[in-house]
Amino acid sequence: MSDKNNWKKFLLNSIIVLVYLGIAVFCVVTVLVNNDNMQEEQKAADPLENVEESPDTAKHEEFWASFEGFRDITLCAEEGKQENRQPIKLFVQENHCYFFIPSYYNTGGLILHFDENAYILSLDGEKMFDGDRLNVQESGILDVEIPDSGAKQQYTFSIMQSRNLPAIFISTANKTMQYIHSEKDNTEPGSLVCIRADGNIDCMGTLDKIKMHGNTSLMCLKKTYQINFEKEANLLGMGSAKHWILQANAYDKSYLRNKLAYDLARQLGLPYGVEAEFADVYLNQEYAGCYLICEKVEAGRNRVDIPIPQRDANRDSADIVEEQDRRYYVFPEKTQDAEGYLIEANNKIVSSDEGRIAQEDCYFTVESGIYEIKSPKEAIESEVVYLTDFMENVEKLVAESVSGASRNVWEQYIDLDSFAAMYLMDLITNEVDANDYSTFYYILQGKIYAGPAWDYDRAFGNEERNIYINVNGFPNGLCEELAKNKEFRKYVTDMFNQQAFLNAEHPLLRYLEEAELFLQKSVQMNEIRWENDAERLNYSYNAFAEEVSYLKYYYRERLTLVNSLLNEPQRYHTITFTNSAGRSKDCWILDGEVLAKDILDFMKSQYGCMHWTFENGNIYQQGRPVFGDMILYAAEGDYD
């Protein structure tokens, strides 16, 4: 009995042990499964964690290739107000990584922030932690490991700091620029903080929107932007306004051409000269580069001071009418005509120009070109008719001035000061887009004024069309035609001589001498940030210092030429190259010199012709010295 009971007891205990063991195994399996599910959910939520646990080198290489760009590893100032402690994201490019920090950051107090569950970081073999302090001189070898993935990578690491420039921090609603960059007219609201190089707050404000700005510059990775404040802001001491332009200067290796041109316009007294200041720009904690912060060319207070009719409230109820060579709005109720107008030359020279004037923009066409009406934005038919008739009259007066018509006649309608200043702007800058695009005029009380000046990043020899000092890269316009009048030309000469541009102490020459050092640190960061911008156009030099040297050379040489043309006109002869469409460009040759073959061939490529003829059809024979002015006509080919 006793043995039987012992056996039953042993069997029962064994069953109980097995049951408990089964329960334990079940619990362990459940925990492991749940843990795996949690890890999968975490990986799905964070792309940085979504790395397969595999020693597969190819997959790791693919991961690290996608790791390039800005990462959520940030550096911020330790001291100062909350607004000053703006975080800056780490930039990764190939085997290098950088923090691009603004001028005002205190060199001894920088705080590192990162998610220790997402990254394991070591600098020169020493493990780093969230909240560690760094200094500006910090550099070395940074090891980056993604926990539990087997993915490891090594980078050279450095902190680069700007100097002299203010910093502008912009945060958008979606914390990314992806939507804004997907279409030109896409906008997002946001906020802006501007901090000067000394750490003082310049201005803060809410942005109604930020959007891309420009046309051909949209091809570049580094974009130009327009920002609209909800309330007027005095940005960098340039006066209160809502709308500002952040010019990328992506086509200009010197970064200085726009700034030099705007300062030149103000020096010449061109009305409403654009003020501009350099700044380092950060978009959603990502360094965007060295930018030129500019006033926008528009009608309004602290801008082009002409009355603006208020039509926005009725805009949605208006119809847009497209007729031959013009477009305008028709409102359901009668609208009083504007008292002043701002217009911009926006010609269609190549197929890509079709998108320059949007479907809702008003314009009109006259012999001198297509003009977009910038103010009033919603122009009505009577205004478009008035502007068309007015500009045709101006063209007629300019043409008559060449034949010696009285200055008193055309001076009633044309402001001499602004036209003289704009003519000098064209001559000195040699901007290839002058008279075709971004050339503004405003009409007030029955008189036309040239200006403001805008968009000169391809000026001063920065394009194949203007590399020759003695050849205009731009087509002749109203100012060039008016300059054929001796009275107007004397007016221009006096204006030029009053400036003493060639004096070594002239403010613009001094600025060019100082600008390289002033921008150097910011440019170094910008060049690394945008090293892979393949769409960038530049026909000069690869290095910033060389490009600045070339700009100084070109500016002085062009000033010397202009000085001779105005003050010693007998020394030079004007060669005008033209075609059947009426487009023309000028070249100047010293008396008795030969018109160089490379210039003739260059102008053939510009006009798409096989040879040059005189007005009577005789072919021009190259190699003969020039002893007088000439007009040469493009034959066997049209201008493209």
Unreliable residue stretches: 41-53
Distance between the termini: 116 Å
Radius of gyration: 33 Å
- What's the story with the biggest beta sheet? 9 strands, mixed
Strand order of the largest sheet: 6-5-8-9-3-2-1-4-7
The coarse silhouette is globular
Average pLDDT, rounded to a whole number, is: 89
Strand content: 25-35%
Number of H- or I-type helical stretches: 12
Helix content: 25-40%
Which key terms come to mind for this protein?
single chain; 640 residues; 27 strands
Compile the SSE list and pairings:
Layout: H1 2-45, H2 57-66, E1 69-77, E2 88-93, E3 96-101, E4 110-113, E5 120-123, E6 126-127, E7 133-134, E8 139-146, E9 151-161, E10 167-172, H3 178-182, E11 188-195, E12 201-212, E13 225-234, E14 240-247, H4 257-268, E15 276-283, E16 286-295, E17 319-323, E18 326-330, E19 340-346, E20 363-366, E21 369-375, H5 381-402, H6 407-410, H7 416-429, E22 437-444, E23 447-453, H8 478-482, H9 486-499, H10 507-529, H11 544-567, E24 572-578, E25 584-590, H12 597-607, E26 611-613, E27 630-635
Parallel strand pairs: 3-9, 10-15, 24-27
Antiparallel strand pairs: 1-2, 1-4, 2-3, 4-7, 5-6, 5-8, 8-9, 10-11, 11-12, 12-13, 13-14, 14-16, 15-16, 17-18, 18-20, 19-21, 19-22, 20-21, 22-23, 24-25, 26-27
Describe what this molecule looks like in 3D:
29% of the residues lie in helices and 28% in strands. By secondary structure, the chain is an alpha+beta fold. A nine-stranded mixed beta sheet has the order 6-5-8-9-3-2-1-4-7. A seven-stranded mixed beta barrel has the order 10-11-12-13-14-16-15.
